[in-house]
Amino acid sequence: MSTLLRAPAGYRADLEAVRRRRREREATADPASPAAAAEVLTLWHREVMLAGARPEELLALAAAVDDAVERFPTWPDLRLLRGTLALAVHRPDVAADALAAVPALASLPAGRVLAADIAQFTGDYAAARVGYRSAAGEEPRWDTTARLAALAVATGDVEAADALYGAAEDDLTAKQMRAFAWIRVQRADLAAALGDLDRAARLLADADRGYPDWWYVTAHRAALDLAQGRWTQAIEGYRGVLTDVDRPDFREALGTAFARAGRTECAAECHSIAVSGYLASVARGEAHYLHHLAAFHADIRPHAAAAVAWARQDARSRRTGTTLSLLAWCLYRAGRRDEALAVLDEAFARGAGDPLLQARARQIRTGTPT
Amino acid sequence: MADHNDPNSVNSIFSDVDVSAADVYDMFGYPSDAAEEEKVVLALTFAAVPEAGVFDTDMLYRLQVNPHARSVRPTTQDWSLAALTRYFDAMKDHYLGQRDAAEIRVTVDESGTATVRFTGFPGGDFTERVPTNEVTTMRSPSGAEIAAFLGGRDDAFFNDLPGFFRSINYAPQFYAVPHARQDVRELPIPKTLLELEGNTLFNFDPANPRHGRGVKLDLPDGPLTWEGDSFAKDAAGNYRFVYSGEDAQAGLNVNAIVLEVPLAFLTEHPEEERVVNVWGESWVRKAAAKIETIPDDPLWTENPVALLRRRRLDDELRQYKLVDTVGQPFADAGLSEREDNRQLGANNFWLAPAFVRRLAHLGWGFGPSVTALGLAGVFDHDGAPVSVHRTYSTAAAAFPRSRKLIFQELRMPDDTWKRSDVDIPLRRPFEIFIPNVCAIDMDTTGTWPFGRRLEDQVATRFLSMFLDMTAPGYSVETLNDQALWDAAPITPRTPPNPLTNDKPFLPAFPYLAEPW
What we know:
The complex is a heterodimer of chains A (370) and B (516). Chain A is an all-alpha fold. Helix content of chain A is 76%, strand content 0%. Chain A has helices at 10-28, 34-50, 55-71, 76-88, 92-100, 109-121, 125-138, 142-154, 158-170, 177-193, 197-210, 215-227, 231-244, 248-260, 264-283, 290-300, 304-317, 321-333, 337-349, 355-366. In chain A, helix 2 (34-50) runs parallel beside helix 4 (76-88), helix 18 runs parallel beside helix 20 and helix 19 (337-349) runs antiparallel to helix 20 (355-366). Chain A is globular. Chain B is an alpha+beta fold. Chain B has a domain at 13-155 and 250-347. Chain B has helices spanning 10-13, 81-98, 161-167, 171-174, 263-266, 287-290, 299-302, 304-311, 331-336, 352-372, 395-407, 429-433, 458-464, 482-486; strands at 24-31, 39-47, 50-51, 54-55, 59-68, 103-108, 113-119, 126-131, 135-139, 145-154, 175-176, 217-218, 239-240, 253-262, 275-285, 320-326, 438-441, 490-491. In chain B, strands 5, 6, 7, 8, 15, 16 and 17 form a seven-stranded antiparallel beta sheet that branches. A five-stranded antiparallel beta sheet of chain B has the order 1-2-14-10-9. Chain B has a two-stranded antiparallel ribbon with strand order 3-4. Chain B starts with 9 loop residues before the first helix and ends in a 25-residue tail after the last strand. Chains A and B meet through helix 2, helix 4, helix 6, helix 8 and helix 9 of A and helix 1, helix 6, helix 7 and helix 8 of B.
């Protein structure tokens, strides 16, 4: 049943529009202008994120931003973009350097938000909360509210999280359907994590109607299908995602769907491609696929020692609920329950409390067989 | 699954900005010149998006109308902050009690058909669907005939907006300002009507004459301040005007809602309720209302604050988000500094302290300019020889400076603004801007500040507030007088803003000129 008042443009039209705009701006941009450089690079960033946020593209963009920063070191938008890119590839140290390079940013809402993003990424939840609230107080924005919601998820206050996502959504207009879909996806993930899969499905359906054809929604729908044992739908969903965004983590997910469906050969092929991608990234000195390797070797293709090693490496750069939860899980799967419990204690002591951490903690504490 | 699309990425990927069909420009309102029946002309103009004559179907425009008798105000003798506060309190009760009473809503569908809803008027609630870009007549349940035009028109605002922005050193008009630098808007340079010696950031540059008029430079690294101590003068000893008199809106279109409404439809007591307050609002459809979502949570569990706000709205408005308001010209650009959270329309009473502080701030800038030109200024600037950048943190500290400016009566050039023998007091700045409504006095022609007629040069009349209206011959039209500028030590010798619109207004409804 189509219930749209007017069909939103959707993902493909949006992506094409961003690409066209970037090309136009690139063609006319004054090479001596920092504002023009920042505009082109921001459009590029939007295009990369919209097209799948593939790490290699993010890194290529980061290199271009570095070039621009060299030419225009005091232009704050370039530094903010650099910081955002650094976080996307799990480099909070680079993000912090970018922020520190323009001291005035620390007192401005955009700078406070990036500082809070870094704090959240590195597990300093209290500082993140203060930063987001301070920025929101000065410049209320839906995306700052959404960040507070994500922080509430990370710290285990799921009721507040959904309320905050609701507040962020209430601030969005019909001109922001992509953002609307994104929030519905976050709410769906939260519902699924709390066990309400029907609600998650409804929220994802809303997201898809509001902003059609977005691989991001499809990927989450496929993950939900996987959780619900709907293997065929999950396979179909991930195949669709991969036609738009060929990323190792989606290959892995497709492989897992194949495996659950009993198609072991297809599963093995997908998993091999995924792991190759992860390892190639690590070989380049990148950090963003470490947690995928750890989780893969903990649950998909068990290799306890490898899982613990990758999880430890990931937790070395950021000790958050996410990384510590995974490390504890890998340790537990390796039969090292006492160490796992100690890591859990650290996670909770830091204020973490997301639903996955809670679920793993229950299982580890009770000693439930994995 | 970590999806590399987490909230850290939100800022860039999702920073879509509302299109500007929500940008309401002007609220015109005046007694109709039609003789057969007492009527009011109301015209709300807004950005021509997607294009002139085509309305954005996600928008809802709302005109709120509140007729009442003339208000009792502080006497001409009582010029105290306490008197001002008492007045605002009384007006606040008046408005907040009635502000939901009567309104006109307009939405337009994809076929270009408008739905116009009148609610809360004594003449009866009714809804009509009318075509856009045509003059139509709607008939109320009480039989009142209301002329309507909803469509594209020439922009009726004629104004040297870049000149105004130069006067307040508004960086985004002249420079590409980094998005992160929300602090770089009005730079901490004295506001002024005359260029400041050495103000290289904003002074007219003969080598780049369109700077600020379409040409933007990158914001320089250097200090964004001014350290001089005099106004700039040329070799002939003339000051340089920050205004050019050019019409920055020439050749531009708007979309407009124009109505001509019998007064007897708006009020049961047209003989007594002689002031019709009107203000306009733009609302954008909320994202969730764009699709028919399945509500699975009572709102109180999601967002109790939003619920409280929504409970004051009806079913239709709950589907929309208020974006912009317009009542008085320059209430936003001049006094509220365009802050999003100050889009309060008539309910702008809490801005009263900011209004007092802002006028004092502007006075320190414009006051010395007025004096330098040999004009009588109203602002007490202690004889400062050049404009001063001074801000206030409290209304109490600012009030002694701005008191006379706030309370002085704005004189009219002659008596042609009166349409009857009724004794109508001249208006004073505090009652013009708070509440932020277009207050149409039916016993006048509706020329500003007794309403707003299309032909009023309101930007220049706004500046006249800084003149001493007790000086012989001074009025709201003084700065529109070419003879004054011909004799002034200034270049260019022009009134600040154009005296007429780029296209003549029409003698008959809908009065606004055809679009370009």
